[in-house]
## 1
Amino acid sequence: MPELARKVLASYQPQADQKAFFDAVFRLQLVAGQYAEAQKSIASLRLRSKDTFADLLFKQYELFAEARLRQRQNGASFGTNFKPRLTTLFAGLDDRRAVAISTAFSSRDGIIGLQNDLNNHLSTAKKDSLTLSEAIALCSSYNTLQVYKQIEAIALPVVKADEERRFIRDDSVLIKTKDGATLSAVVVRKRGITAPQPTALLFFIYSNTDRSLAEAKYAAARGYVGIVADARGKRLSPDPVAPYEHEAKDVNSVIDWIVKQPWSNGKVGMYGGSYSGFAQWAATKYLHPALKTIVPYVAAIPGQGLPMENNVFLNANYQWAFYVTNNKYVDNEVNNDNQRWRRMRNQWYQTGAAYSKIDSIDGTPNPWLQRWLKHPDYDAFWQGMVPYGKEFANITIPVLSITGYYDDGQISALHYVTEHFKHKPNADHYLIIGPYDHFGAQQGGLPVLREYNVDPVALIDTKEITFNWLNYVLKGGQKPALLKDRINYEVMGANAWQHAPSIEKMSNTSLILYLTDQKDGDNYRLTRQKPKIPRALKQEVDLADRTTWNNDYYPDPIVRKTLNRSNGLFFISDPFDQEVSINGLFSGELKAIINKKDMDIGVVLYEVTPQGEFFELSYYLGRASYARDASHRNLLKPGVMETIPFSKTRLVSRQLRKGSRLLVVLNIDKNPFAQINYGTGKDVSQETIRDAGSPLTIEWFTDSFIKIPVQENPARF
């Protein structure tokens, strides 16, 4: 492997992305035994980083290289040279920096995980030649394994001793709820502090003691009592797991316990993403007086994002119930068995079985799915889990929400925002949103997202902003600088943040585009003129046909060279004669006559760039019979004109160049990734391919329109 690394270094040329270049180079140099050169490359990498603790980046590799160099000079063992340097490092760090670097000296999935990763790379390398990128990836994997095999066992006691010097920790706290259940929690406090402190609370279902301790230490290093509480039935809780169903009261039981402790000053702030975001909103359903603020990232709403979106049950997260309920922690093996879930989806699709039988295709009963399928409406079952309707008016505490344009659950996160402002117009609620996916938003973004090069200014530090916000609310600190107004959004393509008092004020006009039956190349035209006499475009979808899929809506990659035009209707606008920004939530109204009682609709919005690429901006997926009311199904009448409004799309901000056009793709959802609505009017979960009958025929009328929020004459950034 050292010889391969030296050969790669000899041919590897500087890249436009200097950070990626030096990241690869220092790893190659370590494998090649060029330790002094590796230290220089790490220094170059740090100079290009905007990380809060840039000087600590890759410290484990730097100390490894230093110990190897000293080993060459003095002939002593690696451990003899490495341990004192590590001990000296931690002795000179303050709490924040020590916590930030502490996890760098242990591998996330253990040495076995690193060995498995290397084996995977080696298995793909069994051929006559490797590409440069394959060789770099192989050497990088080898380097990571070799470094951690040397440092991990030495570092563990050093890091633990340093932690005990700084913090008081208890990883086995048990908390009783009012209904007699038991929850477990981790508590970390700064050693030597006698005055009561505010609490930073994270509540989650993904139980992992090491992660909980790391989260709690992070908070303790910033002047809080750090607490991570596990959902009912997880970790040390003896009770059964029940995802979503008890958080509204269980979180408040934890807060009750907190405020009774001598170290509590009676103020609690919550933070965290996804399920933890949901748990925060659940707690506000019965708002505890000690809960002073929440910071939910990509917050889930059961019944609004997953397991169903706009009343369509999705397969994207089918395995999640097993992942969180199979044991007291999480079942990574099941969650990561992508081949199993792909096979299940495809077999279910091909057989045409009822959606309620999909777990029989897999072979393992899924009682949680079956429970959820009994509630296809957004009914009292779902409404009881988080604030609903006028209950949002009772949420008087400051809120900071964070989500992304490409967060799969964005409609959930934004539902909380829009409902809060709807029922409490003066809500003290801020939103940060940018080009992030579900996991990226919880960190602050990635330089490259699904092959799209993210604007540099969009990259933030979510955790740093979170604790600055907690300081602002709980300690009277400064409000995070990014929060210049209620809605704070990064304009893709402009490399700039903009700010608005509301989602509606992100734009200064609405572009209403009507469908037409006039051809423009391979597309139909979109026009600003409402037709005097609407005409119809016909679409036919054979719901029993399993040789094709309909509705390719998912934005991966975000930018495409070509689109699948085998099905659906494509509508294109005229080119823009100046720069404009698409800012906000697109919506629309579809008018159609169909021969069945229901259908699932997909609408995808693209920018067609002057270069002819397709940049996906947003999309909608929803069931027509729930278009007006997610809590009550109103079936369509065959042969009768129906008006179908839609609005729960993905919020986006993107600056379009002069010459860009908008493309709207209208389709019926029929694929392995969601329920198939056969249009009989029965419970969709019970329908089978035998219910398909004659093909679904739709007449889409040209007084249907798409409404797009536009900022005309955008400021030059």
Note: The radius of gyration is 27 Å.
## 2
Amino acid sequence: MRRNVAHLSQAERDAFVAAVRKADLLSYADGVSYWDKQDQIHQGTHNHNGPSFIPWHRELCNRFERLLQQVDPGVALHYWDWTQDPRAADDGNGGTVDLTTDNFFGTAGGLLQGVLAALHNGDQVQGSRDDTGNPADPPPAIKRFCDPGAPGVDSDAMILASGDALPQAQQWPAFRTALESSHNTAHGFFGPGSNIFDPHKSFEDPFVFLLHSNVDRLFAMWQTQPGREWRLDQAQVYGSETNSSGPRGILHNLQPWDGTVEFGSPIPPWTSGSTDIEIKNCRHPSVVTPPCYDSLPVSVTQIAPTAGLPLRFLDVAEGEQTARALRLRIRGCRQVTCQAAVKGDPAFTVLQSSVVTPDPQAYESHDVFVWVLFQPGLAGSSASGTLEVNVTETGDAFSIPIEANVIAKPTVASSMVLDRSGSMDAPSGVAGLKRIEVLRNSAPLFVHLLGDDDAVGVIQFDTDAAEAMPVEVAGGTIGGAGRTGALAAIAAHVTNPNGLTSIGDGLELAAAQLGKVSGFSSQATVVFTDGFETAAKFVADVAPLITSRVFAVGLGTAEQLNPVALGELVNSSGGYLLLTGQAGADDQIRLQKYYAQIIAGMTNSAIIVDPDGFVPIGGTAVEPYPLTEADSRSDVIVLTPYARALKVALEAPDRTRIDDTNGAELAATSHHQVLRLALPAPVMPGPVGGEWKAHLSIDPDELKRIISELEERGNREEINRIRTHGLPYTLAVQARSAIRMDVVVRQSSRLPGGDAQIRVSLAEAGIPLAHTVSVHAEISGPAAKPYVLPLPEVADGEFGEKLPTPVAGLYRVHLRAAGTSLRGEPFTREELRTIPVWNRVDDRIIVGDGHA
């Protein structure tokens, strides 16, 4: 902040003068000191009496201030209020101060003495720059012969209002003429024979920067007059002179920093070929933006909601905490504090009772968000209150009504579209299992993870499509009608050995199926296929009919599936496509993870952790995971081909033990277990937030049966692995939470040599989680070894980076986020994405012949 130099404390004055002295001891490469360079610049340019006079001197002051701050980051280029006598200036505390003492800026009458005397040659011409012609040498003398009293300048108010009555285009010419006139008077105040009096020697005296900082202060005050924001716009501030050219014109590049001068040779370091050269004119934002002065106003404007309107929480889902914000725009050079409180219904609270703006580095605007949290009650209820906000520094006060209503929890109706073409009888990569069997083992997890009020239907497709089950409400975890029907349809799903692959037929029938249902918050279609399209209808044929979000799972590689049309459909609908890649032993687990992630995305749940491990025989595997007070439900999912032999129990942060006997609901198949827990659980007295633990142990009787079955099949290798390591598992934890992680991946090209832009956003109840989260991606690609790609925060709660895709194949991206919630509680989030790249013409839809 540039301040009235007379208002500085003694310590601040000493630091300011010390910085000027040190600037004379540090030099550029040509041997000219930082201080002496200022006179060299002024000698080579002499920008006066024209449109660019004031902005050119702003650039000079800004650059000199940065040099001083290299010496002492705490100093600023303070100003002299030229309406006051520098020998008796108002000190801001009811007294006066002499700026011309030997321990400050020196004399008002005669040769400069004291702490700044080293800036001249002691009134000797010999050895001075006037003698040697070397700008690195000091001037012969620095002298002042100030007039008595204060300079006869116009008042600040007269200068600032000099053009206000004129049309907008004429205000700048009138203002800058009035300001330059008072500037000339101030120079003359130092008297004939003084350096400042002579325009060719004025920048040999450091007091000239106090004078020109005041010129710039008045320019800044003129720009920041309330109601005249156009003066901060580079296209409007200079009015009729905006496009003036020539050496004094607004569009003329600023010398000498552009590598040219008006008089003499270019000035180092801004010479030909130098990287220090900067080409800009007076319309550049760095010139138009005012520096911070202590006399500039601070304004507070309500941006949203529009003044007079309430802060509305419309149709908030039951149990889902939501946030809305009062948005204030603070413009000025000072930090301000907004004190906030809510009156009325206790369902409303403020996130922070005190919000402080960032420390501005120039006269700039910052938007302040005062967040109000709403904890909704039962569906059909409503609430009201008032947000009171007071801005301490300005006295501004805002009183905003708050309105809210609550609706039932959101529900989703989904259609599972499952491939039964002939190729589904091919080996899967999982030992002894066909692709159709892997599908039947994986898809039930999707059904078990549905909410009780969600709905599901099943479509089968090969050459044609058929409805295996209409859309029905899932119902309870155990015995729900829709859940039971969908599981039965999946179990009965078999191949048509002669069937081709018509994904379009399946999508069309799913759209018709979903079109018959209503009363759900959203709809989603989930496609599973193992090959590219070989029969009409094709995806492109039916894409206009699809109104739901579409998610797709592909068993195979990009070359095998050619997912161009399907990929475009899912991306445009708000879904995504996941591929397994080359067939392998992990395909079944991978498909289960994909289905679990898709249902999480459909139901606004979040993936918290996803570790792998072994449950030792006779022991217990313990997997910790964090939950927060923002979480309203958790699903602990255990994936393993030996699910029937595992026992799962949960441990809350208060050490309460929870399983399917005292509050959790269990859904299980031979390939997975899901332990669902509504939060907060009645059985636990303590808080939800904190470290939870999943305890996995082995049922010895079931283990014996598994070993016996493996012996019958002669699988000694698997028996030895189990006896050595235990039973393998993958554990995934999902939470219905106010903390959301959204992921978008966009490829520049599907051909090798392109890249994929990864964008991740994290928010709690709609509030961006800024500066409290770190995000990285674990990348496994077709060529390089797995590696970690950090995602920097590019905006509040937004993280992004480009992933190069140099060779063909499948790139697996495992995104992990870790941070703290709005309440300071630790949390984690994870998601998977796959990026297909292949050596075919980009974006070409390949149609094959024969079986898929």
Note: The chain has 18 helices and 38 strands.
## 3
Amino acid sequence: MVSGVSGAGKTETVKIIMKHLATVQTSHPSFSHEKREMTNKSMEIEIVSKNNEDNARLKVVSKVLQSNPIFEAFGNAKTERNDNSSRFGRLTKLHFTIEKKENTTLGANKNELGLIGDNDGNKISTVPVCSLVGSSFEIFLLEKARVVSHSKNERTFHIFYQLLAAPSAFKENLFQAFGSATHDSFRYVGSTGSRIIEGMTDTEHFELTVSALKTFGIEGEELNTLMKALCIVLQLGNLTFEPDPSVDGEGALLVADDELEKVTTFMGIGQEEIKNAITTRLVKARGEEFVARLTPTQSRDSCDALAKEIYSQIVSVLVDKMNKRTHPAHFGRKADQVGASIAADEKDTGCISLLDLFGFETFDKNSFEQLCINYANEHLQNRYILDNFQSVKDDYEFEGIEIDIDCSTTNNSEVLNLVEGRMGLISIINEECVRPSGNSSSFVYKAKMIHKDSDHLVSEKLHRPWEFGVKHFADTVTYDATDFVERNTDQLPLDLLECVTKCTNSIISMQFDTLLTERQTLKQSTRRKQGAMSMTICSKFRKRLAGLIEHVAATKTRYVRCIKPNENKMPRVTDHIITMRQLDSAGIVTAINMSKNIFPNQLPYDIVWDRFQCLSKTDIDTQLEFKERVAILLPELFKDSERFVKGQYTAPYVCG
């Protein structure tokens, strides 16, 4: 589990760990020296091997490593604090299988290195090894809002800049008029002073992304379909809405210009259908249906919501395709040899998971996404506390040993209860989303009234009606809830969904068909209110986060803490105040203090006796219980009585 504040280096750390875990097996003696040398140079080499299993294994390694450029292109963006910031959470599962016993010579002592020679003089391992046979990916809370807006000094997702920096011939193949398009051609992108990310230009990154997509079989017409879907997202941002002077009251007019023509060409949907779907809504009330006209602002919001949803579905399609190509079920098999059920393949493999989740964030303006991100970090911090502090304290209490461990400074269970409890922030905002007149100011008012006695909900006199604060484990954050209800609902109207299902782009039409079916099923449900609340972003994120934490709890977790040395992205410069604040809030200081108060070794009494009785010069009665024997043995071995302590079942002690 890799954690840290935004810009601390989590993504790069995960890449280093992933590369190590994916390629370390190529150093196994079953690989020839020549093959290992080639593998270290590039993962895109054409692998030629007489050993089909080695061949398949190296292809898996290549695909695992090639997933990084794709995720960075579609999920990362430049922020004020980080040029390559992950704007989503990612769980990568690397699946390993153990070498068959008949292929090894267990227990052989013919060579100190654990190697023996075969008839041809090649060295063979005498110990079973784990082999990487596949991987799977899961993403969390993609920051869709970045598709349609970003701060002046930031950028939207990298893939848009890469596409615009692609060769003109490639862009013209997508759409003739797209060949000369630049950053300034699209409102969602806009001008930017950053053309180099991680030491590479956007053009170089585009070539890397296309090469990585090819590794997963996305090339040719399938690649064009993917890129055209991205073009649709960009073009939606250029649509213009004006007040309609031909109708009484409020109404929007979608300007019929070249930009609208491009959208209709890309989507394959008529102009009138698009106009009606974006500028009007079909409303049903008291058994009657009527068309409600939207204002220009509402129409713009509707168009932006469509662009965000299309991009989200594009990313979902990519993840699904990557999972299908790297799943353990495909190891050493052709596509037509993969069985219908792949659950058994996962069950028969061991798994090492890498979690790269967005770091704790606090900005001048903190919106709905920041609340979700910080909520996730609270859960990870709570897991860290349980694994490293509370478990040790519980063990010592079970043994009847007094230990001075204060977990109160790191315990964040009250914050979690504030957010996800029975009447927590999630429940309150979900209620506002299904209430006909629900709004963000009402959400903030209810939250402050219900939790007025909470030490972690901050209410200040200078707060505006839509502002509230939360005292997180890392810092106190003030949130602007202006659009919390809209962001949490995040559902396109049915008539707009129906329109988009007619799109000629196969990626968009198939995904929106699925969305439409889900919405129609929910609409027909007898428990519509509960169903609507379960479809909110908060509810879905809480459910997925609970599954993630359950997965983490079932594993042996290694924690990697990334510390950001300064706020200016300067090398070899450490701001000690910022660094110490991160160390303290992450629980590192508490962990160091705990290490002073606990014993590094803890063994059952029978093992202590078997291991150390040979050091005793005293004739200890072996008829005594192990605990009684050890009670005589330890004072003899440790002259200082503070170097050991006798528990109910174990004897913790420091190194002698």
Note: The mean pLDDT is 84.
## 4
Amino acid sequence: MSDTETDHSHKHGHSHFRQRLEHDLGQARLRTANKVNIVSKIAHHAIQEIKGKWNPNHRHDEDWEKEDDRIRDEIRAQHRFRSFAVDRWHNSVKWHIDGHDYFYALSELLDSARSHIFILDWWLSPELYLRRPPAAHPEWRLDRLLARKAAEGVRIYVVVYKEVTQTMSMSSSHTKHALEDLHENIAVMRHPDHIGTVDDIEFWSHHEKVVVVDNLRAAVGGLDACFGRWDTHNHPMADIHPTASAHTLFPGQDYNNARILDFQSVQQYTSNFVSLLTTPRMPWHDVHLTFSGPAVLDVVQHFVERWNEIRHRKYHHDHRYDILAFPHTPEDGPNEPIVRHPHREAFHELGRKFKQRWLGPEAPPDNVDGHSPVGTCRMQVGRSVSDWSHGVLTEHSIQNAYIQLIQEANHFIYIENQFFVSNTVEEGPVQNQIARALVDRIVLAAKAGRKFKVMVVIPELPGFSGNINEQSALKNILGATYRTINRGGHSIYEEIRKAGYDPMEYIRFYHLRGYDRIAAPKSFLQEMEQKSGVTFREAQAALARIWTGDSHPPELSNVTIAVPKADTGDTANLGTTQQNVEPVQVKAPKTVEEAREILKKFESAARMPLETVVSDSVAQHALQDRTELKDEKWLGTEEEEKSCYVTEEVYIHSKLMIVDDVRVIIGSANFNDRSQRGDGDSEIAVIVEDTDMFKSTMDGHPHMVARFATTLRRKLFREHLGLIRPQNCPPEGDEPVTSFMRPAPIPLENELGQPEDDLVADPLSDAFQHLWTNTAKINRGVFTEIFRTVPSDMVRNWEAYKTFVPQTLPGHVAPDVTLEQLKTRLSQVRGHVVDCPLDFLIEESELISGSQWSSYNPLMALYL
């Protein structure tokens, strides 16, 4: 095709696309004028579903659509990793470890908005508190913050995943209506529809976690703005404060343990179906980025494309949902890839425009809080998208990036991920080849006689409720994980052994686990109830009424509270994930004033303020606390205290890889097919390479490292090894705001050269490797002895599982352990890292073999 013919074809395609958008706008006007006929709507859905099944390629079969696809493919072919986005230089990038730091940074980021906010989330909880404790920061609840910004004239655009309601509980409907009811400047889209649509999506989800503010700054990573994600470096598992309810950190549904019970009726956000008195919360470890720089424009492009595509499919009839234009134009940068974008002109002509200041005569933007938004990092955005999620042919530039970065690694790879499901061969249901890349790189190093290490940190168990021996989802994901690591014939370990090398010399796997004590002496609480005439559950209902504030919708008039059942002395029916509780509805006080009086009456009945004697949490002792576990006091019997010690895995939700302390990839994508193939879940990630380099060592030899990658890796290692100070939230809310809690471009405090930092500086040194492996081994031994946790190498089959798992409440101390024994042993725990038990259920071949693994089973796509 000649250049003239190509140009004519492109203009012809632009005309077709523009006509489609104009038709959408006309439909919006008709929708405003005419009430929708429900019968015709149902008929339309039926026709659309038939159409989609008849022609699954319906968005890519017209000549102009094929031309659009050709242009996109040409653009991607010119970029590293075949990404839609080009490399961008001079970005200022910051990492934020765990929700405490990121959500504070997010609160500042959102509060800085002057024109617009874009949000992509798998789940968004409007009632999430971004600063804690909530009693000291009521104005920093997410919905209240967004309402303030909308009232100031900021336009807010949100896209959330529309869940399969029969199997998932996050209620995107509640998210949409709770936010849109706040102000007309807030628009929320839910996607995809699952029944009666041309796409008929059954399995896949929108999984990105993205925020953009004013096209100036962005946030990308693993943290959804939803319940269950906020956490500190301490990773506390208890949050009960009988005489100081204002100290609560995890209000209502935010106190959660997905291994015990998934979220229930989240629109009733003040209720809780997990018992504060007996059940530990599941701690949440995650990592997110904030950044400023020209790479923000590529995140904006991703959002605008998604928004406009969903608008066309679902919301073109409603004027609330604008068409959006890309902010950068040919005048800003004539060589920008966006100039060739097949829809740029139509979006520009018909869409709402927001300013950008990264390209063109106004670049760069002004300083932010006295700091230049221009930085030292090279960034590139990658994504997993396809026709169902984005209206484009499949792009899997995230998988391409992971594989290439692994292939180009010289010394060391560190991985944290929520899943680890991959393949080393091109057969079986799992298709992504990240595991193959790891094997090839390790064998290459082994043949060359070079020291090369891969360290992988993943969850002990998937975050699904139920016992391992009973739940197919748990068994399928565990089986897929072990097939990737060390079983099934083509695992990483087996392939390395086939090449003649010991895999343990090159790649090892780890988990995170912690402990805590629930500050609820049974006799102390009973005494308070008797003296006050107020039950603990009534006090909880009063506290719940305070969370709702002045607005108190009818559906929150009753509060559901998980109440422990009366002790029958028979625990034979209990397993590792069964609560011995019943949900009880308690009527909430009518007013906040009445609620405060009830709480005051209950709390003042205590013979002394419990919090002055008994710590709210003891999780801080796994870090560098000034006190020791043996010094902790208690107001109750020894048996009561023993019954209040609990353990739980620290759930790893981060999705990152650090290579040679130089390169980092981080985002929303898991190590599994759902995230990596491109035609499954939609994902976004960024590759970061800092040009700010300094001298360090790798295996004792001089090695230049990048500041961003190195400081992130060292801080993660220090947290996992317990080499950081505890992170506490003062009840008055006067917590010192550190640099780690501020968004980019405010620089991080320099911790290089501190004694703890020096201990983890060289990841290949024998001293560090001994510190890490020895800590993981000791921690694992303690948790096995005190709590008999699974997975465990002592459990090689289901029979051993039945006899090993103690018949106690979930996460509680094994019956034969004494209080003195548990305090002595738990005092030896440092940080949260524990060994991965590679021999767990190794004798159960059905876990990793069978028809579901030898041929493609459509249902397995849910888990892989």
Note: Confidence is low (pLDDT under 50) at residues 568-575.
